[in-house]
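Quick one, probably user error.
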């Protein structure tokens, strides 16, 4: 990660802040596993890799948010205020926008999902982009059983998140939509 950041000609402070986000995310997700048995932390690190390598983004706030995008859902002690103190207001905003109640089930889960998508609709393009990167990484891993019901996940993404991308003029979001469509088609056949 450090080599990848140095190649982007970032300052030493930028590299250190990003490595702090990496360490925090790795610590929060330390004991989590995905359904396929792989460490959960691999997911946010791949989301950050999509941001840096595929989209060419070197904005530290966005890279940190990619690494931290699930920490508020998975930590009992982290808050948006702690993220803001350590990584800045914009990183905290982005992570907060990507955070939802993942423990809800049944009808309540559907209500929370609807509210979440509505919140993202009014969010910055960066927040939408991060959400699409999150979904893209999961799409790319569906063949490894990272979701209990991958068809439902694909259909939910198509229904809720493709429209966010289709309405955007941002070239990064357009790229992510194309990649999501290709991954969906590959998975569904």
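Nope, works fine. Designed sequence:
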């Amino acid at each position: 990660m450090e080599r990848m950041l140095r190649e982007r000609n970032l300052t030493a402070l930028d590299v250190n802040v990003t490595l702090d986000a990496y360490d925090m995310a790795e610590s929060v997700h330390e004991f989590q596993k995905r359904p396929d048995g792989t460490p959960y932390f691999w997911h946010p690190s791949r989301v950050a890799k999509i941001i840096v390598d595929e989209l060419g983004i070197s904005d530290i706030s966005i890279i940190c948010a990619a690494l931290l995008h699930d920490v508020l859902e998975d930590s009992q002690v982290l808050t948006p205020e702690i993220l803001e103190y350590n990584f800045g207001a914009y990183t905290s905003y982005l992570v907060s926008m990507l955070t939802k109640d993942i423990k809800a089930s049944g009808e309540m889960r559907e209500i929370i999902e609807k509210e979440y998508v509505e919140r993202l609709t009014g969010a910055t393009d960066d927040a939408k982009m991060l959400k699409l990167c999150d979904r893209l990484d999961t799409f790319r891993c569906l063949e490894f059983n990272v979701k209990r019901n991958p068809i439902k996940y694909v259909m939910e993404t198509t229904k809720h998140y493709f429209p966010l991308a289709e309405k955007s003029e941002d070239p990064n979001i357009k790229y992510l939509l194309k990649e999501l469509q290709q991954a969906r088609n590959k998975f569904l056949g």
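The chain has one domain: 2-188.
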